Inverse folding.
């Protein structure tokens, strides 16, 4: 069993920054891909970004490219999402997820929610205009 706990969400003005963290426990996550997704009110959950197990490959959805950065610290079993130049449309609940042994790294797999095995409970990010 794997537990994922997100933190770092909050209320920020447009143009501001937040750094989300996702701490994993239950097993070492250093061999597994990690992803961030978000769900805005009234909308489906969508892919934001993902990082390979080694950290040397990442994918981003177009709307966050150049503003968000995903990173990981395998020694701390933690993945981060640095969010800069935040916009009101970034308002959502942000979820981290882990893809275990079956996960084959590719953009298609990284974007597919059903490829991930465990999910965190989410953290709210609200960007005011």
């Amino acid at each position: 069993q794997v537990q994922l706990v997100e933190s770092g969400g909050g209320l920020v003005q447009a143009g501001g920054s937040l750094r989300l963290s996702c701490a994993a426990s239950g097993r070492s996550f250093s061999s597994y891909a990690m992803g961030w997704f978000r769900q805005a009110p009234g909308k489906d959950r969508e892919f934001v970004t993902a990082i390979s197990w080694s950290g040397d490959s990442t994918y981003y959805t177009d709307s966050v490219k150049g503003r968000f950065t995903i990173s990981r610290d395998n020694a701390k079993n933690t993945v981060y999402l640095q969010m800069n130049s935040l916009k009101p449309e970034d308002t959502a609940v942000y979820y981290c997820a882990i893809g275990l042994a079956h996960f084959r790294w590719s953009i298609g797999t990284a974007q597919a929610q059903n490829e991930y095995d465990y999910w965190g409970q989410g953290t709210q990010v609200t960007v005011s205009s």
Residues 30 and 39 are 26 Å apart (CA to CA). The two ends are 40 Å apart (CA to CA). The mean pLDDT is 95.
